[in-house]
Amino acid sequence: VQKSWPTTPNNKREIIHKNTTFKTKIQTAKQTGQIKAKLLKRTNLKKKALKLLA
């Protein structure tokens, strides 16, 4: 029985590499999302403060 692709160490490494890059992409996306949320909160607070001052 022949497998569709040989399970060489190099192939496994590639798969692991793909998984890790995907995970890091998700992590960075989450981090940027959090930063954006913080910035949005800050700008909203500033707008509210300006409205109160005006």
TrEMBL record:
Which top-rank group of organisms is this from?
A: Eukaryota
Protein name per the record: 12646_t:CDS:1
The source organism is Ambispora leptoticha
What lineage does the source organism belong to?
Eukaryota, Fungi, Fungi incertae sedis, Mucoromycota, Glomeromycotina
